Amino acid sequence: MTEQKYSLEEIRLRLNELDDQLLKLLSERRKMSIEVAKSKVETSKPVRDASREQQLLVKLINAGRDKYELDAQYITKLFHTIIEDSVLLQQSYLQNLANPELSRKPLARVAFLGSKGSYSHLASREFFSRKNTELIELNCEQFKEVANTVESGHADYGVLPIENTSSGSINEVYDLLQHTTLYIVGELTLPIEHCLVATSDIRLEEIKTLYSHPQPYQQCSEFLSKLKGVKLESCASTADAMRKVQELNRSDVAAIGNSSSGKLYGLQAIQNNIANQTENHTRFIVVARKPVEVSAQIPAKTTLIMSTAQDAGSLVETLLVLQRYGINMTKLESRPIMGNPWEEMFYVDLESHLDSEEMQQALNGLTKITKHLKVLGCYPSENVKPTQIKLQ
Length: 392
What we know:
- The chain folds into four domains: 18-98, Chorismate mutase (Chorismate Mutase Domain, subunit A); 106-192 and 281-288, D-Maltodextrin-Binding Protein, domain 2 (3-Layer(aba) Sandwich), CATH 3.40.190.10; 194-271, Periplasmic binding protein-like II (D-Maltodextrin-Binding Protein, domain 2, 3-Layer(aba) Sandwich), CATH 3.40.190; 300-380, ACT domain (Alpha-Beta Plaits, 2-Layer Sandwich).
- The chain is built from 13 helices and 15 strands.
- The chain has helices spanning 8-43, 50-68, 72-98, 100-103, 119-129, 143-151, 171-177, 214-219, 221-224, 238-248, 259-264, 314-324, 357-369, and strands at residues 107-113, 134-140, 157-164, 168-169, 183-191, 194-198, 209-212, 231-234, 253-258, 268-271, 281-288, 300-308, 328-336, 344-351, 370-380.
- The strands form three sheets. Strands 1, 2, 3, 4, 5 and 11 form a six-stranded mixed sheet that branches. Strands 8-7-9-6-10 form a five-stranded mixed sheet.
- It is globular.
- Its EC number is 4.2.1.51, 5.4.99.5.
- GO terms for molecular function: chorismate mutase activity; prephenate dehydratase activity.
- It is found in: Cytoplasm.
């Protein structure tokens, strides 16, 4: 039997020391990322350099394997996170230079759906934490109220969910964009981790009533189909559902929400991972009264809204314009035009900077063949795609 060299307490102390060293190194690396951004201001180089990132990852994987006996998957996952953070830091720095008036406002009023702990609330905090911006949080009961609060000037920004990987597009928000005067100024994708929460550790068979927002009901439909005799009650948000369960304080009610948010209401998770899809994400957009300037060095998205003539091939003709100028479309959504039966409005997300030559040429071409065309916003693409390499 091998004699233990260190006591458990000594091992833990050493681990704490190593963790402190890691935190210090990560902080130093972040500071160097800002220095990289400063150098790119003078050289006008783009934030991302795919070739450089690939070379870096390969070098790190080889060093990790040969010198430190570290697994390639472990190294790749770790440095994907570090690279993503570096990209977002550099983008934020360049955006502050492009929008100096925003960098002078460390406090922002933000409107979102639901109470504290709702997914929109979590998305708001995540997005603005990247900007080092303190928030005055304004919770709203409806998506329209979020837009109205920003349009009236009572909030600087609004955060709206627009699509989910499980339940698809959130039509109410798309319909809202058809009539609003607001601009899209940012985006965020948030992992959604649905679970059942209750006031105590009850069994599923005891649940008589379940509270949640309609979207989670869709996203968890397969799990819910297995529950027998349970009444589904809709709430304005998952946070409101959890607050309802807290107020009722009964052993036969539960809510669908996030386990971390549930703790804010004194609730505990009784069933985790109940969504139809393991990878469940919601994309949120951030809206404001004025558009934002986007640095040409940053990957950007442009969102359009347009309607076409009711002729065969009209939509295809617009898509061919985008193809002609090499603009990649990441989203195409159609919604009926209120008051105009059988006519539709199309929402298009494009991977292109609004001020780029190809985008301006495409807009010129689209204006000639569409009945209505409006730019809803050009904003930094904050979904950082992982650097792709082939693992040996």
